[in-house]
Amino acid sequence: MPHFAVNLTFLFTEIPFLERFAAARKAGFDAVEFMFPYDYKFEDIQAQLNDTGLRLVLCNLPAGNWAGGDRGTAANPERREEFRAGVARGIDAARTLGVDRLNCLVGLKNEALPEAETWVTLRGNIHFAAESMEKAGIRLMVEPVNRLDVPGFALNSCSQVLSLLKEIGHPNAYLQFDVYHARRENEDLAKVLHDHLDRIGHIQIADCPGRHQPGTGETDFRFLLAEIDRVGYGGYVSMEYIPQPDTPSSLAWLSSYGYRL
Question: Does 143 qualify as catalytic in the annotation?
């Protein structure tokens, strides 16, 4: 059975963020992730982890001004120093919170720049992050985001991320395999899983379309989750979906698929 984690940015949003840890524990989870810790005191988050016994398995590097429309800074050559300062801040958060994986959202392309310049910028920044995080004992994830949900995002597909990682050639850079984004890009989920298991550092799930819990869309999760077990993936499978109609009700998909936390 996959080892499930729950994303506290997406689930349990019926209650304030710092209360979601206890709610996740009460629901039966032993691991959580969330997008950004930077708007909170790290010690407050750590207190929740300590009180609940939950393990934090992933959070994101800083991604610029999220409320202002930023979705990362790694693709922008004018924000190179900001990105690298964000890597240092992410490492500090990871050390404080005991997390050994950080995800990079690379951000939007500057459409005025040639594609080649964006690619060179990404290559340099991702290599820098992988190298810096390796020294700290932290793995770097790189996540594609589909072009339908976020037009202009610099990396849309698993294949694009994998090509970038191959060019970089750094052992500490991995694909964050987000099943929802891959389906929106019409990628072959099983092929990605089978052909690139060694480069998959983390898996997130949501059904497609809608981005709700498994069973609400077109993705064959009975097959996919069984396949994740069959190939020997040893990491976490995190629920990063918009619960429908609410978080407690949405978790019924687990028992309907034969899983118990």
Answer: yes
